[in-house]
Write a structure and sequence with these properties.
The protein starts with a helix and ends in a 5-residue tail after the last helix. The protein contains 6 helices and no strands. 68% of the residues lie in helices and 0% in strands. Helix 1 packs across helix 2 and helix 1 crosses helix 3.
Amino acid sequence: MSKEHTTTLNRYALVGAVFFMSGLACLDGVGELLCVRFPFLFYLVLGAIGIGVGNKTRRLLQNRVRLKNFFKVVAFVVCLGGISSATLLSFYGADWGTKCSWRYCGRALGIGFLKSPFPVGSPSCSMIHLCANEYPMSPSESAELKRLVKETGCPAP
């Protein structure tokens, strides 16, 4: 395999992975309205799928200039939307004043493959009480909640 062929193959694989993960980030941004956050594992799986699809797309678009240009525009728009969504979700944080706030507790109590990869902000007493009362916790999450209670100086829930 030539170096140019490998570079092209890698470019299509990378664009495929970013395309699929960007689509999920857009859904994550919209999912905020529906009380949904996708776990990190979904991003990894869709990235892997995107790599495979990207490699196959290269063969499909090899001699089709118009279709290739169309795919470039669609990929650019979706990737830009996904990067924008991921940036907003990373810097905006979670709104702990909504009816769905308890869904952020898992991420607030630790990271994991089955939790959202986006930050939820610094812990507050109301957040700690919400999580203690409404979120079904694992033993490790209960221990983290107790640590947060001590660290923040909040009254025990």
